[in-house]
């Protein structure tokens, strides 16, 4: 019998977090992002966060009952957003986000997300 090893390509799993009050910046993020209405795409708010290694992450918040219901770090490449798009958004950020390391999405990223998500997340109307 031959010893065969299965080789698999491991993809990192998306990181999810239920906002349970353990991270105090959740409320500040939601408060600031709600003031910037262009970040609401579909049923979610999007923003950019510079992680500990200064790697830029596209983040999504799904609000519920005036609080954060769900927070996710998404793979921006799956939405057609390049690393250069993320860097440009950080470079030309207006500074409206007062939390360090947090940035609003650029109009270019907003446009890409709207094309993909606004149509897909509309609630279907029931036909009578």
- What is the makeup of the main sheet? 6 strands, antiparallel
Instruction: Calculate the mean pLDDT score and round it.
Output: 75
Which assembly state applies to the chains in this document? single chain
**Unreliable stretches, pLDDT < 50, 5 or more residues?**
1-14
Which outline best applies? globular
Measure the end-to-end span: 64 Å
Q: How many helical elements?
A: 3
Proportion of helical residues: 10-25%
β-strand percent reads: 25-35%
Number of strands: 6
Gist of the model:
By secondary structure, the chain is an alpha+beta fold. Helix content is about 25%, strand content about 25%.
Question: Keyphrases for this structure?
Answer:
disordered N terminus, 23% helix, 128 residues, globular, alpha+beta
Could you characterize the architecture of this molecule?
About 25% of the residues lie in helices and about 25% in strands. The protein has about 130 residues and is α+β, with helices and mostly antiparallel strands. Strands 1, 2, 3, 4, 5 and 6 form a 6-stranded antiparallel beta sheet that branches. The longest helix has 11 residues. The chain starts with 14 loop residues before the first strand and ends in an 11-residue tail after the last helix.
